[in-house]
Amino acid sequence: MHGAQLTDAASTPPDPMRIEMNKLLLIIGLLSLAACGTNKPITSYSEPPVVPIVVDPRAQQMSRNEVIHAVGDCESNGLRAVPIISKRMISGMLSDIVIDVQCMPRLRWFSN
Questions:
Q1: Contact (Cβ atoms closer than 8 angstroms) between residue 60 and residue 33
Q2: Taking a C-beta distance cutoff of 8 angstroms, is the pair 98, 82 a contact?
Q3: Of 77, 65, 69, 73, nearest to 105 (Cα)?
Q4: Model pTM score
Q5: DSSP string, 55-84
Q6: Rounded to whole angstroms, how far apart are CA atoms 81 and 98?
Q7: What Cα–Cα distance (Å) separates residue 86 from each residue in 46, 59, 61?
Q8: Phi, psi of 22 (to 5 degrees)
Q9: Tell me: the pLDDT tens digits for 65-78?
Q10: How far apart are CA 5 and CA 12, in angstroms?
């Protein structure tokens, strides 16, 4: 009886959906291996690229009090405050300064 079950299972035709899935997996596997085998050399930089610093003298820094009031205005209207940051060279060091505060809609997952 046990041998009869083995012969019945071997004589049934394979499922066409399973054959198509096996072909698809084989093609995806071969393509992924082919994509990894490239002859293009990897470029590495010995030093970082030089990027000039553009300084706009017309951009004035907001005072701490102005930033606090702008954030308060945004929050009182049900919006979120987004500070616009610029860089300023102070005593030879780059510092972030707030030059503007924009009110943007609240994101769904941050709303109260």
A1: no
A2: no
A3: 77
A4: 0.46
A5: --TT-PPPPHHHHHHHHHHHHHTT-EEEEE
A6: 12
A7: 29, 8, 9
A8: -65, -40
A9: 999 999 999 999 98
A10: 11
